[in-house]
Amino acid sequence: MSYALLLMKDQKVLRNFLIFFGLYFSHVLLDSLSVDTHSPYGVPALWPITETYYISPILVFSDIQRDTVSARFIKSLFNFHNFLAIFLELTIFLPLVVVLLLLKGKKARIINRVSEGQ
């Protein structure tokens, strides 16, 4: 009994590790596809192994313009350039999310049909 609980706990730890690992590196990958207007250019994708910065030659996403002075930071985020950047990201990712949700629903329906047939 305790071995089964330990095995289930290990599976949860592995699953959570893979989820967070995937989220972290997908974020790094997407950052490398963004316009970078401040030095150092790119992302330290392999930190702490190396301090080299990487940036893709194909830039898909725009930068977000913001003020570095804290008193004006929030106000500086609301501009037309940032609106267009958000619109572009939604245009790219919203169809992907919809397709994934539709596939997830289709998979659930297939599993329900199989379980009802048994």
Detail the topology: elements first, then pairings.
Blueprint (H helix, E strand, L loop, with lengths): L1 H31 L40 H5 L2 H38 L1
Structural class: mainly alpha
Terminal-residue CA separation: 28 Å
Principal-axes geometry comes out as extended
Count the helices. How many?
3
Helix and strand run: HHH
Share of helical residues: 55-70%
Structure description:
The protein has 3 helices and no strands. It is mostly helical and 118 residues long. The longest helix is centred in the last third of the chain and has 38 residues, at 80-117. The radius of gyration is 21 Å and the shape is extended.
What attributes characterize this protein structure?
mainly alpha; 63% helix; single chain; 118 residues
Q: What's a concise summary of this model?
A:
The chain is mainly α and 118 residues long. The protein has helices spanning 2-32, 73-77, 80-117.
